[in-house]
Amino acid sequence: MNQQEHKTQNSSLATQRLAILGAGESGVGAAFLAQQQGYDVFVSDFDVIADHYKKQLQDWNIRFEENQHTEAEILSAVEVIKSPGIPEKAPIVKKLREKGIPVISEIEFAGRYCDAKIIGITGSNGKTTTTSLTYHILKNGGLNVGLAGNIGKSFAYQVATEKFEYYVLELSSFMLDDMYRFKVDIAVLLNITPDHLDRYDYKLENYAASKFRVTQNQTAADYFIYCADDPETIKGMAGRSFEAQQLPFSIETKIKPGAYLENDNIVINTHQEHFQMSIKELALQGKHNIYNSMASGIVAKVLELRNESMRESMGNFKNIEHRLESVGKISGISFINDSKATNVNSTWYALESMTTDVVLILGGVDKGNDYSMLKELVKQKVKAIVCLGKDNKRIHDAFEDDVEVIVNTGSAQEAAQVAFHLAEKGDTVLLSPACASFDLFKNYEDRGNQFKAAVREL
């Protein structure tokens, strides 16, 4: 159904109730779009609503509640838009499922009113970096493009207020779970590693199935870009069929069409003239970033961007805040803020890209982490570990045989000071916690900002 048909249909929906669970960025954006489309909107958050979101809802005269879910209001809706953070086991979601009321994501809802071409990027690691890089390349290449999903302003709000011809969407597994008819024109699957398994009955195949939803509804005119070196991706593809044209990328084997590595050059072959660039010229260094750059580069070539423009963008891109973000140098010691590393895999990628000795700041709320995959890299590169969390026992147990010095700290300021004293000229102090931040901080941004402030005070 196209936008016009929706508008016609919506004139008859004018009084239909649409309930929205969760009043964060996605919920509030969806509320604005739903009201614009003529729905009777009700927003419900089981927690406190942040002041700036509350003010937006008040300014738009949208009814809302916080610290509770009024079932009579929610269960009278024709459809419910659920925040990605709310699990299936939440009582209100169970009741909606029992009543057969459709529960969808903000992305699914906004997609009904959007005619733009969609680039959807998912994966356990590298999503935000690849999404930001892809957006940067497309914008610099002259395309009228928006950035949304798990990043930036909500997709729904932008659909209501902007007229972009392309969107680059960072799609989490939680968003994909509540997407049904939404179609991605260019789907990117970076990798599949264990994460959020508590939401998937602790089964990796359930989580993988969620990631593969990025390809649902694709046709032969669409593209599926994936990593041929990722074992879980290849395993998951074996039992599935794909309508879209496949463009894999690899640093281990030569692949055509797709992308591969040859003599330290990224080579991209699609139906377009081929693209080549030395990995030494890439703004993003480290093996994992070669993969991220390949994925973004394939998207750009599918969209027929010029090689010169791509080369320039891939060479001058500044990484996102809190993801391997350089904080500066003091007494010859480099400080890097990778607070966004909230799982072990992300920390593995960060360590893998380090070329100096490292003082590693680890810890926080441990989601049942298995630190064994870090052991080899820690042995090779890490001279000391500074723990930043309330309970650090599992970190001590995991690494006491591999690192001579493991110190406990209780604040970002203390962690930065201790790490500074343990490091020597030429070393890197890396905040890459492998854990969530909720024991000592509001969120990973707060943790990263406090760390950066502490470094500036040294």
Summarize the structure.
By secondary structure, the protein is of the alpha/beta class. The chain has 18 helices and 20 strands. Helix content is 36%, strand content 21%.
Would you spell out the secondary-structure blueprint of this structure?
Blueprint: H1 3-11, E1 17-21, H2 25-36, E2 40-44, H3 51-59, E3 63-65, H4 71-74, E4 79-82, H5 91-99, E5 103-104, H6 106-111, E6 117-122, H7 127-140, E7 145-149, H8 155-161, E8 166-170, H9 173-177, E9 186-189, H10 204-212, E10 223-227, H11 231-238, E11 245-249, E12 258-262, E13 265-269, E14 275-278, H12 287-302, H13 307-316, E15 325-330, E16 333-337, H14 344-352, E17 358-362, H15 375-381, E18 382-388, H16 393-399, E19 405-409, H17 412-422, E20 428-431, H18 444-457
Parallel strand pairs: 1-2, 1-4, 2-3, 4-5, 6-8, 6-9, 7-8, 9-10, 10-11, 16-20, 17-18, 17-20, 18-19
Antiparallel strand pairs: 12-13, 13-14, 15-16
Helix pairs in contact: 2-8, 7-12, 7-13, 10-11, 17-18
